[in-house]
Every structure is written in C-alpha cells, then in structure tokens.
Specification:
This protein has 90 residues and is of the alpha+beta class. Helices cover 18% and strands 23% of the residues.
Length: 90
C-alpha cells in the first residue's frame, strides 16, 4: 500500500482524511486510483495535458517527483506521496 498525504485544501474531497492509502505501481496510477475513490481529485492535481499543475508539488518520500521520473516514478509498498500546494508570497 502507498500512503498519500492530502493537504488541508483538498481534504473536502477525501471526506476530511489527511492520509489515504491506495495500491499503485506508479505516481500516475496512484492518482488514477485516487480519482476512482474520490472523483474530482485528479483535476486538482493534473492539467488538461495530464501533467502536474504548476502550483502543485508531489513528493515521493520527501523527494520532488520532477527530479525523479515524474508521473512515471515507480512506487513500492510503504512509499509515501505528499501533495504540497505551492505557496506564493512577496
């Protein structure tokens, strides 16, 4: 099982849960499973081209997936995906 940490702004989709678990082999597959369980989740993370939205950061065990294989990054049992909304400031 893969644990996905859900940020507060997206918890209304997961019925208030801060962590959810799915079985998946890649980040992309994990997002698809989330969408099956919680419709509307995928559109919050991916754009129309199926890429991670600019204002969303996905980390696998504290490493940005953009520096791994992106959505094709392989997962293993016990991995943790953290969804971190980008924060703008000035």
């Amino acid at each position: 099982m893969i644990t996905i940490r859900v940020p507060t702004p997206l918890r209304r989709i997961t019925n208030g849960q801060g962590e959810v678990q799915v079985e998946a082999n890649t980040i992309k597959e994990a997002i698809e499973k989330l969408e099956e369980i919680y419709p509307g989740f995928k559109e919050r993370l991916l754009d129309e081209q199926g890429e991670v939205r600019r204002f969303v950061n996905l980390y696998l065990n504290d490493e940005d997936i953009r520096f791994l294989k992106g959505l094709d990054t392989e997962l293993k049992d016990g991995d943790v995906i953290s969804i971190v909304p980008a924060i703008a400031g000035g």
